[in-house]
Amino acid sequence: MKKKDKKIAGVIKExxxxxxxxxPLPEELSREKVxxxxxxxxxxxxxxxTVMQYRRVISMAAAFAVFxxxxxxxxLFGGLEGIQKTLDALKGVxxxxxxxxxxxxxxxxxxxxxxxxxxxxxxxxxDLNFSLTWPMNVKSAxxxxxxxxxxxxxxxxxxxxxxxxxxxxVQVKGIDEPDVMKNDGRYLYTVSGGEVRILSLLPPENVKLxxxxxxxxxxxxxxxxxxxxxxxNLLVVLGYERTYSKYDEKPREEPAGETVPAEEPVSxxxxxxxxxxxxxxxxxxxxxxxxxxxxxxSVRTVxxxxxxxxxxxxxxVKRITQDGEFITARLVGSEVYILSTYxxxxxxxxxxxxxxxxxxxxxxxxxxxxxxxxxxxKEPEPNYLIVCSADLADLDAPIxxxxxxxxxxxxxxxxxxxxxxxxxxxGEAPARxxxxxxxxxxxxxxxxxxxFHFAIGGKVEYKTSGKVPGIILNQFSMDEYKGYFRIxxxxxxxxxxxxxxxxxxxxxxxxxKVQNIAPGERIFGVRFMGDTGYVITFEQTDPLFVLDLKDPxxxxxxxxxxxxxxxxxxxxxxDTLLLGIGQNGNERGTLPGIKLxxxxxxxxxxxxxxxxxxxxxDSYTEAMNNHRAFLVYPEKGIFAIPVSMxxxxxxxxxxxxxxxxxxxDGVASPDGGEMVWESxxxxxxxxxxxxxxxxxxxxxxxxxxxxxxxxxxxNHGGIIRGTxxxxxxxTISAGALTAFDIESGKILGxxxxxxxxxxxxx
Length: 762
Description:
The chain is mainly β. 12% of the residues lie in helices and 43% in strands. It has eight helices and 46 strands. It has a seven-stranded mixed β-sheet, with no helix packed on it. It has a six-stranded antiparallel β-sheet with strand order 9-10-11-12-15-16, with no helix packed on it. Strands 36, 37, 38, 41 and 42 form a five-stranded antiparallel β-sheet that branches. Helix 1 (3-22) packs parallel to helix 3 (49-73). The N and C termini lie far apart (73 Å).
């Protein structure tokens, strides 16, 4: 072989090795398999040695071209720049794709992908899916995960005086979740009207506001707090920053390849093309409340860390921003993980190149997420899931960041893993064949849930991904136990739905499944507890299904109970008792009122409703849909929920009133006609405590703000959370912090707070 031929062969061999290293293939596409096939190619006997040598080189080059074509069809995002034309030419090769993520190779490739998405919406009537489905656990000593029980309330925390205090009810013990209220045993940290308030809890007779964190919002910019985390002497505030700009103030960027003649400069113009100084420009000076269409906006998630050494003047020590709407966050040890979802406007062709790479800033230093930290799903949509992490024990350390082009939703976390999910819609059934044993009614929307698994703990590293049919309800739809990932989904629409539970291995491949649970119904509540799963579905009655998950390869439904109403939050009381919080109902559907159900699951094959309490009337509790509003006080054996109730009293016009008692005085109406019946609605807000004893739910006590405070705050939703320190119960509303004696219910102290101003939206 000539020197030149050897060089060509060496280059091909090197390129093959590089592809194989960066992009592992199935066995049937490996280099060895391809080489084995080439060995048995029938080629004519060459007449001359030189011809044979060149044919060998040509054969190797052809094999390399086929190999590259297979790689391209395999869905790889990037490739070698020198063979980009070959990749483009061979995109039509049909090779089965894995459920996996590919890493971006350069910004240019990501920009090109967005340009293709932007063009596709015109060429193929591309219907982009911007909808998102918005799922965390700690490893036990044996390598498994403990049961998701009452959360970290089981492990009592104590303040400096030795008194226990309440913490946020979380899904998984040891993994803290953000909420609008945090209690550290001495101070209460709350979010109200986008501001952060810090209140002193001790002594309860002298509760008071000690400091407020406000944000300087100006025309064109708004920053607001949404939730909080507390770690030792640090307060973590999570929120958003929105910026607004008029369309006519946005500098126009000409697309590549187009130029504007120097003698015809482009002047700012509004969307309707009106000239400067026209009537349209005058209209745009009007308050944006009535002209919202003149403004576009961008949103960033903000994580601000404050030092609480001086509680009266918290000091900002770190600020992180990342593109997109805030989804959620988790605190694992000293590491805080922040998730956001960032949508790219592919219709903005002028600014697409600048906006299609998400940005993250640390203490004001902006930086794009590097291409090699961006993973791309097989079927990308113009939405990113962004995950950033910061070490609160080392505030000077750089933040870690990762993005997935494919969006994301609920977060589920263990001490060393983070799972995120996205919903993928693909038309109507039977648009995708999930297998003969998976029931999806014809004509139903076909949706699947894609799960992304990241390794965490001083890093955010993509590990693998998987996909299952159906959509999840919330974070409780996900769980990990003894190395297996469990997920509950609902397939189909309201009339043609059914539910499923899938068990996936460490590579997120389905190893076991239960499908077609409760045809025609949807999942309303889920709880996984060790080797058992509980699923609540609903249409007119509330079936509770008990699943045996001991054998990951053969999960099965072992018990079922049908009762009126439904439970949307399930909380383990003991190993055999499960508390459900949800909506009252009868055999025909729902009824007004909160229903607390106590399920006896000691016999999984025969679950039963051991007891129930119905808070009648037009009542609601946030704990039905937000587990963080549910309080557990283990030492006292009580749990509590905030309750809002509307009482309607019917009476006749002209009747006398005596407090809340209304009665007729028998006097005819002035015109001689009959008295007219009218109604009066009264809003009542309270914090209700209960206990479970001898298989019964017992009401303990209700705590209500003083009449003056309650009247003042009724238009702002009343009591939103409750907590405790020692023998004192505290309730927080938009306008007051109130301390109660836990036994008598007597008000010990109250602090009136400024009512939040109405949010101003452009």
